[in-house]
Amino acid sequence: MDFTVAICTYNGAQRVPEVLDQLQKQVGTEGIEWEVLVVDNNSNDNTGAVVFHYAKEWRQDSHLRYIFEPRQGQSYARSRAVQEAGSSDFIGFLDDDNLPAENWVAEAYHFGREHPKVGAYGGIIHAKLDEPAPPYFDQIKGYLTIYNRGSVAFCYERSAKPRRIPAAPGSVIRKEAWQECVPPPEKLLIKGRDEKTMAAGEDAEVMFYIQNSKWELWHNPKMEIWHHIPPHRLEKSYLLKLARGYGLSNNLTRVARFSRSQRPLLPFLLPFYTFRDSIKLLIHYLRYKNIIQSDFGKACELQLKIGQLYSPYLKLYQKS
């Protein structure tokens, strides 16, 4: 097997068919041995039955498999996908609301083969909306993982400020890089999204581990997906909570950015981070306090900065 498409899902019976339909349309895959692996992350709906129905009439040049992972959390599901991918050189991760372009598999596979030092890479993520975008959409689309980092391929430099990594939806990871760099799921800092606080970052943690190694991270603009965003995810109450969740994830992903030898220094740096984030929050509030009620983008930024301030004390925050 050359390439595994891994779809990690929880209660995705209504969403997975749209992804599988798009994978049925893939073109340019001649000469590529590829498969689709649906990892059911402890669902209690009929996700399995949906996948088995598709498997009966799946395309002849590919395989469709179903795996049940009982340990709840995206990190467990993704690690199980890597384990089950067998001999595949590359694993392309799609969420159950990510719709790949018809050439996505071919472009993803060939890019990895042409860049022997690349450990992981992502592409362009468009929005697929069911209704017209709200007027504040461009201000908040980053919270919904809508990214377009240009039409030219480039390597994410580890020394860049701010340090950047590929977005998780539609990203591809070389299996060898994962096996060398990523700890077992029970040893990862972030297991998955906390539904109470919306803190997450498990995908970023994996990317930083790979970036801290000999492997490279790249942007491949020829890989395009459409992120299907239902109307409830555009509601202001949801987006404000999501923005704070991004902030609350900040310290955990900061730890992942540091090498293991540097991590013992982090407790001594917490007063500095707390002071710095307090100043940033205060400046933002004073600068925009008169327009926060009317400028939803600035309101989300305020929640982001509040979350960043609390992020080193996430466990205490979760108990509050």
Break the fold down into its secondary structure elements and pairings.
Elements: E1 3-9, H1 16-24, E2 34-40, H2 47-55, E3 62-68, H3 74-84, E4 90-95, E5 98-100, H4 104-114, E6 118-129, H5 137-140, E7 154-155, E8 172-174, H6 175-181, H7 202-211, E9 216-229, H8 236-248, H9 250-257, H10 266-288, H11 296-310, H12 314-319
Key structural traits:
alpha/beta; Spore Coat Polysaccharide Biosynthesis Protein SpsA, Chain A; nine-stranded mixed sheet; globular
Question: Would you mind describing this structure in some detail?
Answer:
With 320 residues, the chain is of the alpha/beta class. The chain has two domains: 3-234, Spore Coat Polysaccharide Biosynthesis Protein SpsA, Chain A, CATH 3.90.550; 260-319. The protein has helices spanning 16-24, 47-55, 74-84, 104-114, 137-140, 175-181, 202-211, 236-248, 250-257, 266-288, 296-310, 314-319, and strands spanning 3-9, 34-40, 62-68, 90-95, 98-100, 118-129, 154-155, 172-174, 216-229. Strands 1, 2, 3, 4, 5, 6, 7, 8 and 9 form a nine-stranded mixed β-sheet that branches. Helix 7 packs parallel to helix 9 and helix 10 (266-288) packs antiparallel against helix 11. It is globular, with a radius of gyration of 20 Å.
Give a short account of the largest sheet: 9 strands, mixed
Number of domains: 2
Q: Low-confidence stretches at least 5 residues in length (pLDDT < 50)? A: none
CATH superfamily of the largest domain: Spore Coat Polysaccharide Biosynthesis Protein SpsA, Chain A
General shape? globular
